[in-house]
From TrEMBL, chains A, B:
UniProt-annotated binding residues for Mg(2+): 8
Molecular-function annotations in GO: hydrolase activity; metal ion binding; RNA endonuclease activity
Keyword Nuclease: yes
Assigned EC number: 3.1.-.-
Protein name per its UniProtKB record: CRISPR-associated endoribonuclease Cas2
Organism: Geomicrobium halophilum
InterPro entries for this protein: CRISPR_associated_Cas2 (IPR021127), Virulence_VapD/CRISPR_Cas2 (IPR019199)
Biological processes, Gene Ontology terms: defense response to virus; maintenance of CRISPR repeat elements
Assembly notes: Homodimer, forms a heterotetramer with a Cas1 homodimer.
Amino acid sequence: MFVILVYDFAQKRVNKALKIGRRYLHWVQNSVLEGEISKANFVKLKKELEMLIDPDEDSVILYTFRSQKYSQREEMGLKKGGDDNII
Amino acid sequence: MFVILVYDFAQKRVNKALKIGRRYLHWVQNSVLEGEISKANFVKLKKELEMLIDPDEDSVILYTFRSQKYSQREEMGLKKGGDDNII
């Protein structure tokens, strides 16, 4: 399945969140990761994020799609994806 | 159709970008808007963003889905959506 993960972590946890996210997905923009993921890895990803999250400060939204068949992705402006310019 | 808009604008343009986005979609998290939108409004939204964007500094990704039938949305941690706590 295809996942879009958007996250908003307190400064002191954001790097760890990104590190966890990048083990499973691709960084595409500030606070946004996406990619194909197996169900098993999706469960693992959520568990790792759950252990990191401070529910009073941090927020994660996970959009999952069985397939990308019915979707489109458009980029405007600067292309930020790819692993070299991580922020 | 359903749209997820993630944006990364330079500080001096980010409020304008959010203002444009919120005319068509719902703010759900820092730099993330989503919602159902007509094709006509989607074209208008993109035009307005296009006029604002500095292609050397700003980045927008638009994920569009014909329907939400094949998708799921999960939130972890703090729920940031709703119009009262805009950042």
